[in-house]
Fold this sequence. Notes:
The chain has helices spanning 2-21, 36-47, 80-83, 102-112, 161-172, 197-208, 212-221, 225-232, 242-251, 264-268, 292-295; strands at 23-30, 55-57, 66-74, 88-96, 115-119, 132-145, 148-155, 176-186, 189-190, 222-224, 234-238, 257-258, 274-279, 282-289, 299-306. By secondary structure, it is an alpha+beta fold.
Amino acid sequence: MQNEKNQNNQNSKLEELKKKLNFSIILIDKPAGPTSFDVSNKVNKILRDFGISKTSHFGTLDPQVIGVLPVAIGRACKLTGFFLGHDKVYIGKMHLHKEISIEELQKVIDKEFSGIIKQLPPKKSRVKRQLREREIKLFQLTKKEGQNFSFETEVQGGTYIRKLCHDLGEKTGLGAHMTELRRTRAGIFDDSNLFLLNQLEETIKEAKEGKIEAIAKLDKMLIPAEDAIKQVFEIIELPNNKKSEELVKKLLTGKPIFKQDLDEKEFSKIEEEKFALFFKNKLIEIAKKASEEDKKQGIIARPDFVYN
């Protein structure tokens, strides 16, 4: 009887985990070698027996760059666009082709590579090669060993660190190239909860065998997409009543939000263009404030992503 009870408990926890998986994000410690797409595909393959048919990564890392690679699972793949473009933090190393002191090099960085800069994407990039403005929030040298310099940098999403090192070499006239790079933060995702692919694979294998410890470990690996959304967007939580239940049914079919649908005081607190709507602590949609033309019809927001 006790064994049967334990088995039922295992099965119940496993089913709960499968549901959670389908709208979650996992942070992979990307190794050097594979592309970000390769890593996402590997995660997909590992999770396939759990009913997962799709994965996608948030933000490309070059094959030789390592570190934080958020991978969306299942329905969370539709959220990719909401998490791209946020600030990134890296630690790395670069080699200067001629001798220079750390103090002199830092002076050039502070003068020429701080704040808003203009950067031309590298030739091998997939974007159009035209000058783009990017913000460098931090570019700090931390160590010098001969002509090798360690650094930490925080940059606007879409900044090419390899190109940043190259351009620094051009500006000094000494020449420089990046030798190592590790991403430690991508937007809200940092390296405090990273997992190697083989760790995920081993945990999944044991979880499929019904091992409670593995199921609990896998559960801790996952970041519920709703938790991530709450860190990025302002939130409106609909009151738990009949009116909200009826509203949710309509919103899940793509209906716009009308003035009478939301509490005016709550809506007026929303300062950003987009916000997230929750009901019973579950995501209903990410909405975008309506245009002036819409407002004439009483519409105050339209869906940008609907959880259905």
